[in-house]
Amino acid sequence: MNNTLGKTGGEILRPSVPRATRVAINEKSSPEDVTRWLQEKGFSPRVIDLLDGQDGANLFSLSKLHLQQACGRDEGGYLYSQLLVQKKRSGFRTHTGDELKAILNHRRTHVELSNEAPADEPVFTINPIH
């Protein structure tokens, strides 16, 4: 009770509620957007400096293990979970297993025929999940 009542004549003091993050990132976010997002999320200056210059696509490609190794276990894990939220909100999808198999088969066939990497990769349209 003493923690909720201040010396303001019995007025109840409410803990400050963190404001909602206004900045969201996606795989097309610029390095400036990423830095702003990291700052608004409250990441340490060390992590912000470490990720300076990274765009959304690069950040989205980092694994949980890489983030934990670079940023530390706790902050790297928190960053990974926040990135999962941003990926979900932006509709980001990686290739499915079938799409990856088709790309691999295309490359394998091309290399077997010409002994060179293919110039024309198969294109898959990825529709965001709504």
From TrEMBL:
GO molecular function per UniProt: actin binding
Domain SAM: 22-83
Pfam families: SAM_3 (PF18016)
GO CC entries: plasma membrane
GO biological process, one term: regulation of Rho protein signal transduction
SUPFAM superfamilies from the UniProt entry: SAM/Pointed domain
Lineage top rank: taxon: Eukaryota
Protein name (record): SAM domain-containing protein
Species per Swiss-Prot/TrEMBL record: Caenorhabditis remanei
Highest classification ranks of the organism: Eukaryota, Metazoa, Ecdysozoa, Nematoda, Chromadorea
